[in-house]
Specification:
It is built from eleven helices and 19 strands. By secondary structure, it is α/β, with parallel strands linked by helices. The chain has two domains: about 20-240, TIM Barrel, CATH 3.20.20.10; about 255-380, Beta Barrel (Lyase, Ornithine Decarboxylase, Chain A, domain 1). Helix 5 packs across helix 6. The two termini are about 20 Å apart. Bound molecules: pyridoxal-5'-phosphate. Pyridoxal-5'-phosphate (PLP) binds next to helix 9 and strand 9.
Length: about 375
């Protein structure tokens, strides 16, 4: 392993294996659910759900992806030199406080931006006036999510204003579902009806250069009527359904496997306490493996005495409290266990004892939050 020195701390010993075949396969399977010509927007916000935004973009940029969606203009700038063929779509709306050079950059680099106020449109128009830059704007319609969308009537005013300004262009109209991953889709269908009503009233679909989009992963998979011109897939690209899903119409493949080495083996006699708080006491003579991956690295403290890892194909228990930089596993039953051997912390198999689903269950959260906790300093190894 070469000596690694850089401005940014990296940990070559903590390894996230990113399987490009799985990522590309998932993308194609999701696209396969949609009518031909439906655009694919790959959601790569939050460091590509923990998978590494540069690595993920580099894999997907050669594929049939039309847009990359990010949360903020800062993430957009971060990947803008990597992306040539695709457009970058920023989910967070431009506002009237946004620094002029950022808005100028959005115009210059042809970013697609969300807009949700007249003040912000005016601000963008003033910043860009006199330049030959035109900023692409998407209006997010409130249909039931109750977050960033704007009401239909106000949206019509925004569209009028965008059409009237020389340096702004209406590039998209969209909405976002609150419950597309639930068993009961009635609320999602109500949202869809509200969205459709807006589209009909404004005859937006007659404007061929305006992209209409609504579906996140769950809606892409379960609500074909929501595909419109483009789908925005995040979690499903990474091989997970928003929540475990029986009879899924596509068989997605988890993209990431997180591993760290056993850095020390320690024999502990029966009846001995292990780690902070003495929350675990050995019931037999035990061989403990020390893994240098604690809650500072994104391994939840809630996994203490609860989670599993896999060493040499064998499922082993996490014992005692998770520490800041370390966690202990019981490797007594692993034959020929040795220092340097890799332990799998998050497996790339949804059924595994340490899948993102299994860990999410223990932590009382969703698989998104488990994946996103893969720390930026973990080395991404692309296969
Ligand atoms: C995050 C996000 C998505 C992607 O959601 P997934 O459930 O991960 O597919 C799509 N659209 C918007 C507006 C989002 O914020």
């Amino acid at each position: 392993m070469r000596l690694y020195r850089s401005q940014k701390l990296m940990r070559p010993d903590l390894q996230a294996h990113v399987y490009s075949g799985a990522l590309l396969g998932n993308m194609r399977k999701l696209k396969g659910l949609c009518p031909d010509g439906t655009k694919m927007c790959a959601v790569v916000k939050a460091n590509a759900y923990g998978h590494g935004i540069e690595e993920t973009v580099n894999i997907l940029k050669e594929a049939e992806v039309d847009f990359f969606a990010v949360s903020s203009v800062y993430e957009a700038i971060h990947i803008s030199t990597l992306v040539k063929k695709q457009k970058i779509f920023i989910l967070e709306a431009i506002n009237e406080f946004m620094a002029p050079d950022l808005i100028d950059f959005c115009g210059k680099r042809d970013f697609h931006c969300t807009i949700s106020s007249l003040e912000a449109i005016k601000h963008a128009a003033i910043v860009l006036s006199g330049s030959n830059h035109v900023v692409n704007l998407h209006v997010n319609i409130e249909t039931g999510m109750g977050r960033c969308g704007v009401d239909g009537e106000y949206a019509e005013k925004l569209i009028e204003k965008i059409d009237a300004c020389e340096n702004t262009r209406l590039a998209g109209v969209y909405t976002h579902f609150a419950t597309a991953d639930e068993e009961d889709l009635s609320y999602a269908y109500e949202q869809l009806a509200n969205f459709q009503e807006f589209l009909d009233k404004t005859k937006i679909r007659q404007r061929k250069d305006v992209i209409v989009h609504a579906a996140n992963s769950a809606a892409t998979i379960k609500i074909p009527e929501a595909h419109f011109d483009m789908v925005r897939c995040g979690i499903s690209l990474y091989g997970y359904y928003s929540r475990p899903m029986a009879d899924a119409p596509v068989d997605l493949e988890p993209v990431v496997k997180l591993q760290a080495p056993i850095i020390r083996l320690k024999k502990i006699p029966k009846g001995h306490a292990v780690s902070y708080g003495c929350s675990f006491v050995t019931k037999r003579d035990t061989v403990i493996g020390i893994i240098p991956h604690g809650y500072a690295d994104g391994y939840w403290r809630a996994f203490s005495n609860n989670a599993k890892m896999i060493v040499a194909g064998k499922v082993v228990d996490v014992v005692g409290r998770v520490c800041m930089d370390q966690v202990l596993i019981d490797v007594t039953d692993v034959k020929n266990v040795s220092v340097g051997q890799m332990a799998t912390i998050i497996d790339n198999d949804r059924e595994s004892a340490c899948s993102a689903y299994a860990l999410a269950d223990i932590a009382g959260t969703i698989c998104y939050e488990i994946l996103i906790c893969i720390h930026a300093h973990v080395t991404k190894i692309v296969h």
